[in-house]
Design brief:
The structure is a single chain. The protein is an alpha+beta fold. 18% of the residues lie in helices and 41% in strands. It has helices at residues 2-13, 70-78, 149-157, 166-171, 231-239, 302-314; strands spanning 35-36, 44-45, 51-54, 59-66, 86-95, 98-109, 112-122, 132-140, 160-161, 175-177, 183-188, 194-198, 215-222, 245-257, 260-270, 276-286, 289-298, 316-318. Strand 14 and strand 15 (260-270) form a beta hairpin.
Length: 319
Amino acid sequence: MVRRLIACLFAALAGSLTFLVSAGSEPAYPPGSRVGLEVPGDLKPSTRIPGFEDTEQKVSIAILDLPASAYFELEAAAFTKLPDFQLAKREGFPFESGIGFLITGITQKDGVTLHRWSLLAQALGNTVRDLTTLINVEVPESALSVYSDAVVRKALASVTFRPAPIKEQLGMLPFRFGDLAGFEVVQVMPTGTVVLIDKTDKETPTDGKAVSRPVVIVSLGRGGPADSSDRGRFARDLVSTAPVRELSVKSAESMRINNAAGHEIRAEGKDPAGQPLSVVQWLRFGSGGYLRIVGAGPTNEWDQMFGRFRAVRDGIIMR
């Protein structure tokens, strides 16, 4: 499972990103990443992996920005037998933003002896939330004179975290927002999912029950029905996955959305506190995939919400 998780993340990020490097001893961050470090030697931004490479020496630093939930699975794997890993050593490792686990050892890859350092750490406190990082450093035997254990450890000791760079993350997406309609972006995921929350201040209810704030979730999906007649079923299957209690579809229809084939579903249910919740889902179909926009909020605010949801939908432009 761990290998599949890491492989998927590499596949999603590799090949399409360019990276920013800060001058001097300032930490460098991959665009959209909350994890940075001081880059040693001749390591340059990589277009192959999320991190940095010295292509001449064949040295790499791969930086993974993961959700907090990934930590425990990766930690468990770190304390099991590591296949093809010789002289493995596990130790606590203090760094700029906390303390993590460092695993060092030697492995063979395509007949080359590689020295590897893997730092697993989790962000604590309120500055950066929901963050686990896994940083893998690989140095061939032939490059140890430049990238020694001391050099690598110094780089890893400089690892630091920053709050999610929302604007940077949005700039990496294959679409942009033209009208946020009073919502604010609070999260951008590597998968291309964006979460927007209503900026309007809500009064705290006197009965102690939580009130759901209007939310919009925009995401990209691959594939989709090849036959237009299957789009209704496809849309219903998707909306059924919404984390809404007692979800009931009230209407469903095909439509054009920004001059593209689309489908709308309106539904009702209850939020986690048991309060009435209304939901709208729009799918906008394209070549090889689809754009999904889901808007949800308290049913008693539906008349005010729906127009704003639609404004967000209509303002999304594919790059």
